[in-house]
Amino acid sequence: MFENLQAQPADKILALMQAFRDDPRADKIDLGVGVYRNAEGITPIMRAIKSAEHRLWQEQTSKAYVGLAGDPAFADAMIRLVLNNAVPRENIAAAATPGGTGAVRQAFEMIRLANPDVRIFVSDPTWPNHLSILKFMGVETVAYRYFDSQSGGVDFDGMMADLGALRKGDVVLLHGCCHNPTGANMNLVEWQAVIDLLNDKGAVPMIDLAYQGFGDGLEADAKPTRMVASQVPECLIATSCSKNFGIYRERTGMLMAVSRNADATALNQATLAYLNRQDYSFPPDHGARLVSMILNDSALRADWTSELEEMRKTMLGLREQLAGELQRLSGSDRFGFIAQHRGMFSRLGIDPEKVEKLRADHGIYMIGDSRINIAGLNRETVPILAQAIVDVGA
Ligand code: PLP
Ligand code: TYF
Question: Where does the Aminotransferase class I/classII large domain lie (predicted)?
Fold first, then answer.
C-alpha cells in the first residue's frame, strides 16, 4: 500500500539547516533556523533550567502519568506568565502540548471540531508550518496583507482592508509578538483597531505566542495578547517555551482557550483533554515541570529573567550594529527597519537570486525569502554580512 504515497514538500528551513551542515567552508555563517545562539555560536542550556533539572533529578520520585491536560501547576504558571490577571482564571481552559507546534495543531483541531467549514485568516507571509498544517488538515485559509516590503514595516492599511472581508465565525491567526518571518510588528494602537474590527465582525482571534521575552521584554511582549484576551468573547492562545526557556527539544508548550463564563470554560477544558487523548494522550512533562519550577521559585525566576534579558539585549544590539553597518556601507537608510524589527527574525527584502549568491559566494545562509536569524550573528560577523549584502548589490 505504501507505494501509493507521494513525496511531500520538504521544510525549506530544515533543508537549509542540513545544507549548512554539509558546507565544508570554515567561515560559513548560519542565519537560517530560528534557534538562539550566543556569540560563540552555541545554543546554551539556560542556568535556571540546569538548576531546575538538577533539583528535579534529586526530588522527583515517580514518572507515572500525570493527566491529559498536563500538570495543573504548569497551566497556572503559564497563564500567569502570559495573561497575568487580564482574564479571571476561571475563564481560561488550558492544556500542555508538545511544544508550540503542538499547541498550534491542537488549536486548529479545536477550531475545526467546532466549525468544519471555518476559514482561517493568516498573515502574508506567516510561519510556513501554519500553512502546511492547515493544508494537511484540509482547512480553508485566507491570506491577509501584513508586510510592507518597501518600508519593512507592517502594511496596516492593507491588513485592515483584507480583514474587512471577515465573516462571523472566521478565525484570524495573529502572531502575539516577534512576527515570524518578517520581524515587523503592530503597535498597540493598531492592535486595538484589529480587536475592534474582530469584535465588529464576530471573528475569533487565535494568537501564536512563540517568542515572549525576545522582543521588548516579557511584559511588553505579552501586552497585545492580554489586550485581545480581555476584550473579545473568546480566543485561543498557543504558547511555546522552546525559545524563552531554551528547551527546544523538550517539546514544551500550552494551548489556552479563553471564554467568558464557567460553562464554556468547562466544555473547553474537556475538549482540550479529549483532543490530547486522540493525538498523543499525555503531553510531555519534563520541560513543563522545569518551567513551573522556575516560575514558582523566586531565585530561579530572577536568574531566568536576567539571562533571557541578556539574550534579548544581545539581539537588539546586533540589530543596531547591522542597521548601522548597512547604512555606513550603502550610504542609504534602506535597511533602517532592521533596528525597528523585534524578535529573532528580520526579512531583509533581498531578491532570491541575491540570497543564493550570498550562500554560494559568501557562505552566508538565510531563508530564500531573505529572512535572517539575528542570533546567528555576532559582533565580528555583522560587518561581514553587511559587506556581503552590499557586494551582491542587494
Ligand atoms: N509558532 C511560531 C511562529 C514559531 O516560529 C515557532 C517556532 O519554533 C513555533 C510556533 C513553535 O515552536 P516549538 O514547536 O518548537 O515550540
Ligand atoms: O521558523 C523557525 O526557524 C523556527 C524553528 O519545521 C522551526 O520556528 C523551523 C522549522 C520547523 C519547526 C521549527
Answer: 27-389
Instruction: Judge if 153 and 285 occupy the same domain.
Output: yes
- Rounded to whole angstroms, how far apart are CA atoms 130 and 125? 10
What is the best residue among 17, 78, 101 to mutate for testing ligand 1's pocket, by most ligand atoms within 8 Å of CB? Answer: 101
- Same-domain status, 32 and 78: no
Same domain flag for 215 and 191: yes
- For residue 301, being part of any structural domain is answered with no
Q: Of 84, 77, 126, whose CA–CA distance to 104 is shortest?
A: 126
What phi, psi does 49 have (nearest 5°)? -65, -45
Residue 254: strand pairing partners = 96, 239
For the CA of 129, the nearest ligand: 2
What is the rounded average pLDDT for all residues in the chain? 97
Structural domain that includes position 172: 65-296
Asked if 29 and 111 sit in the same domain, the reply is no
> Letter for the amino acid at 19?
A
Answering whether pTM is above 0.90, one says: yes
Query: Catalytic site residues?
Result: 127, 208, 210, 243
CA 97 to chain centre: 15
* pLDDT tens track for 104-161: 999 999 999 999 999 999 999 999 999 999 999 999 999 999 999 999 999 999 999 9
Whether the ipTM is more than 0.85: the answer is yes
Question: Cβ contacts of residue 231 below 8 Å, gap of 6+?
Answer: 195, 199
Note whether 210 and 78 are same-domain residues: yes
Residue 131 in grid coordinates: 500553512
303 falls within a domain: no
Query: What's the domain count of the chain?
Result: 2
